Amino acid sequence: MHEVRTYKEQLGIASTRLKSAGIDRPAREARHLMQHVCSFSATDLINRETDLMPKVETEAFFDLIERRSLGEPYEYLTGEAWFYGLQFACSPDTLIPRPDSEIAVDEALARLPLGRVSRVADLGTGTGCLLIALLKQEPRLTGVGIDLSSAAIDVAQRNVDAHGLGDRADMRPIGWRDWDGWGEADLIISNPPYIRSEVIDTLDNSVRAFEPHSALDGGTSGLDAYREIIALAAKGMKAGAWIVFEIGFDQADQVRFLLETAGFSSISVATDTGQRDRVVSARL
Questions:
Q1: Residue 147 annotated as binding?
Q2: Any idea which UniProt keywords this protein has (predicted)?
Q3: Contacts of 143 (CB under 8 A, 6+ apart)
Q4: Range of the domain at 41
């Protein structure tokens, strides 16, 4: 049990705990977690700083602080993440949307004909952030998101509904091996598992211990998912359709080779804000 103190005092204690655990920007995270627990805006918290924090809220707040100090991602604690200027629900059943993935949306939009009805498929959709960001940017798009994880699809469906896209986006709990919509898509986008199996145990604790390994582990070479998707796409996609992959920083040449070997053309590589290879695009 924690002593009854003012909101400001509890923030100071929480910030110190997060700082001792090596959390970047501990004061900022403590403040945001308090706002989350108390359903406060930033202004509310400023106005209430000298008030005593109720016991129930205090215990809930310090529970999150302790979990965060042990490495649990902030986004899982709040159940929310931001991507492409949009808010998304997320959970430990999905990867956390990250800014580096936004370049995949940019590259996909650059390859879709503006103002024309088109269909997009997102393979391994997770939260649905890639598909939803595309549909929010281009109102004449429709799309489907597929994922083997029914729990992930539940999260994606919540996001579809929250963004008012229920009539344009279909979320299906199915893997790409069993999906039969290849020939309908004008563009396929995917952030598949691409981390080599042997590397998983070396990842930061916040990733290794909390994010779903099924969405991270790309097999011995890190290329298992790319091989499967490219082979299926080469057989099933219509001529002229595009495929856009997020990749690991050192996988551009290998994924390019897989695409070339399968008969794709117009292959290009885009870098993220850190100037690392992040996206490979190609046309059948």
A1: yes
A2: Methyltransferase, S-adenosyl-L-methionine, Transferase
A3: 119, 120, 121, 122, 131, 134, 135, 168, 169, 170
A4: 7-70
Based on the domain organization, do 106 and 202 belong to the same domain?
Answer: yes
Is 128 annotated to bind a ligand? Reply is yes
Q: Determine if residue 176 is labeled as part of a ligand binding site.
A: yes
H-only helix segments in the chain: 7-20, 26-38, 42-48, 55-69, 74-78, 102-111, 129-137, 150-162, 205-208, 224-236, 252-261
Residues 42-78 have pLDDT tens digits of 999 999 999 999 999 999 999 999 999 999 999 999 9
Within-domain flag for 2: no
Q: Tell me whether residue 125 is annotated as binding.
A: yes
Rounded Cα–Cα distance for residues 126 and 3 (Å): 40
Are 253 and 120 found together in one domain? yes
Task: Kindly report, residue by residue over 205-250, the tens digit of the pLDDT.
Answer: 999 999 999 999 999 999 999 999 999 999 999 999 999 999 999 9
Q: Is 193 annotated as a binding residue?
A: yes
Rg (C-alpha) for the chain, rounded Å, is: 21
Helix (H) or strand (E) holding 277: strand 277-283
- For residues 205 and 243, membership in a common domain is answered with yes
| Residues 243 and 223 placed together within one structural domain of the fold | yes
